[in-house]
Specification:
Helix content: 55-70%
Number of helices: 20
CATH class of the largest domain: Mainly Alpha
Largest sheet: 6 strands, mixed
CATH superfamily of the largest domain: ABC transporter type 1, transmembrane domain
CATH architecture of the largest domain: Up-down Bundle
CATH topology of the largest domain: ABC transporter transmembrane region fold
Distance between the termini: 60 Å
Strand order of the largest sheet: 6-7-8-3-9-10
Length: about 575
């Protein structure tokens, strides 16, 4: 499952970090091996009261390999301490590399998610829903990160076992093999915990998805909640869902804790079993010490591997969730497949033509059918029609967010599909009724909305004048440098709308698209601002509105119903 969200190239791109993690784990295991040898040596010295190493199995083999005949107790003790300290230090280093890899892999997956969202059509994001997207970023990614951490830790712990296992094998392969057979029986215990963790993780994913969806959809319309007296009902519902999710989290910890204590118990049984086996096979006390030390280190490592793998199983539903909703390449994709390499760069926009354009949604319903119209620079038109008639579909086609199912959209006689979309969109300003502002100063908001690096006070003043915003901006505590709270809550909706219109003007577009962008304005402001906008030269302007006060300002109005253009341009 991990290869569905991280491909092999992305993993092996960090092969240097993987090598350091594995190398430090292996080195830690090797020094653990030398610690065990030192411990066996020390016990042998105390028991035998001599420092020669004859006929004592593993020690004789090791010391003869290094051409060592005798050692003092002091050297053995110092060696034991040094080896143990090096083992611990390298284990810490290995944990650092694991944490670092976890960070890098987390960011790779998160970047892929954002890239997929950014490079897909509007339908993709709309079908995903903001709630699911929020849950994926804030909950599922943390669990995926924990799963990756578990896999890396399991690999590291396996490396830590490598040299340790040589100790008991070297001393008595019979005792070791019998002990391993006992460990294989324990594997079936692990499988039970794996199934429990996967089911628990799947339930947790579903609860978090539901919580995020209700939270986002409810509190973005908090005013409606208050008016309809639904705020307590919604909060109780959310509290119940969160309680269920937290209980699942507790259940997950209990499963892990039970697994840990089960391993401790089975580990104790295994150690007693090993002790009696060692006596049965007539091992010496130094050899028994070496085997017991090795298994005292091995059993917790095996327990850690089981826990880490359990952690991965708990997160598997999150891997599946991210893969299903976002990263699955085999699933029907709504990808725009934007590839601007080799596409035409346009310096200006003189005309836009819709020729026999139809658009069918993924569910098979038509948004618009066989639409034809031509717009030239300085044309300023209104679009009207009931909700769901196809107005927004026309705008999305105009912006290149949708590709026509039939027919073509032409810009300066060139098919929009053949034009560099980034360059094209850089010449378009789009304003809807969402009025999104960032928590920064008013000046920085205008710079951000204009897509420029900086703006002069004079050009800002001109834009504010056109949108009738000069007076209320002057009354702000610090003028343009007033810090806005999240969402610009110091402003009314109408004021926020005028700020967004000002920022769009400062972009100096060739096409100005306003989709219900006057909806929060009173009649007086509609009158002034519309007149000002209609006087702007060298701009193609399209205004979608239900407001007669807005539409009556335009000499040309396009009417659409059920996806069909009732009349191309009417006065």
């Amino acid at each position: 499952m991990i290869l569905n969200v991280l491909n092999k190239n992305e993993i092996f791109k960090h092969r240097g970090d993987l090598f350091l993690m594995i190398s430090s784990s292996l080195a830690s295991s090797l020094f653990n091996f030398f610690t065990a040898v030192s411990l066996i040596t020390l016990v042998n010295v105390f028991i035998e009261e001599e420092t020669t190493f004859e006929n004592i199995g593993i020690l004789e083999d090791i010391f003869s390999f290094f051409n060592i005949d005798s050692l003092s107790v002091q050297i053995v003790v110092i060696s034991l301490i040094i080896f143990f300290a090096l083992n611990g230090s390298l284990k810490i280093l290995s944990d650092y590399f694991i944490a670092n890899l976890r960070l890098k892999f987390h960011l790779i997956i998160q970047k892929k998610i954002f890239k997929k969202i950014n490079n897909n059509g509007w339908h993709f994001f709309n079908n995903l829903t903001v709630g699911k997207f929020q849950n994926i970023i804030f909950n599922e990614m943390d669990r995926v990160s924990s799963g990756i951490f578990g896999i890396l830790h399991a690999v590291s712990s396996t490396c830590l076992l490598l040299f340790l296992i040589f100790i008991p094998m070297w001393i008595s392969y019979k005792v070791t093999i019998i002990s391993i057979a006992f460990g294989i029986c324990v594997y079936f215990v692990i499988k039970i915990f794996e199934v429990l963790q996967y089911k628990n993780g799947l339930s947790l994913t579903l609860k978090n998805n539901k919580f995020s969806s209700i939270f986002v959809n409810s509190y973005t319309s908090f005013k409606s909640l208050l008016v309809n007296k639904k705020e307590i009902e919604i909060s109780d519902n959310l509290n119940d869902l969160k309680e269920e999710a937290l209980k699942l989290g507790i259940y997950s910890k209990i499963i892990n804790s039970t697994l840990h204590e089960t391993f401790n118990f089975l580990g104790l049984i295994n150690l007693l079993f090993i002790f009696f086996l060692s006596k049965y096979f007539s091992l010496t006390l130094p050899e028994i010490t070496g085997i017991l030390y090795a298994f005292l280190r091995i059993i917790p490592l095996i327990g850690n591997i089981a826990q880490m793998f359990n952690s991965y199983k708990n997160s598997q539903a999150s891997f599946e969730n991210i893969n299903y909703y976002i990263l699955d390449k085999n699933k029907l994709s709504l990808d725009k497949q934007i590839n601007d390499v080799g596409r035409k760069l346009i310096k200006d926009i003189n005309e836009v033509n819709f020729k026999n354009v139809s658009y069918k949604f993924p569910n098979g319903n038509y948004g618009i059918k066989k639409i034809d119209f031509n717009l030239s620079i300085n044309d300023k038109i209104g679009i009207r029609g009931p909700s769901g008639s196809g107005k927004s579909t026309i705008i999305n086609l105009f912006l290149g967010l949708f590709d026509p199912t039939e027919g073509s959209v032409f810009v300066n006689k060139s098919n929009l599909k053949e034009i560099n979309l980034d360059k094209y969109l850089s010449k378009i300003s789009y304003v809807d009724n969402k009025n999104f502002l960032i928590p920064s100063t008013l000046r920085e908001n205008l710079v951000w909305l204009s897509c420029k690096e900086n703006l002069g006070d004079k050009e800002i003043e001109e834009a504010l004048k056109i949108t009738n915003s000069t007076n209320f901006v002057k009354k702000l505590p610090n003028g343009l440098d007033t810090l806005l709270s999240e969402g610009g809550n110091i402003f009314s909706e109408g004021q926020k709308q005028r700020i967004c219109l000002s920022g769009a003007l400062l972009k100096k577009p060739k096409i100005f698209i306003i989709d219900e962008g006057f909806s929060h304005l009173d009649k007086e402001n509609v009158e002034k601002i519309c007149n000002n906008f209609l006087n702007i030269q060298n701009v193609m302007m399209i205004v979608v509105s239900h407001d007669r006060n807005v539409l009556e300002k335009f000499d040309q109005v396009m009417e659409i119903e059920d996806g069909v253009l009732l009349n191309k341009l009417i006065n």
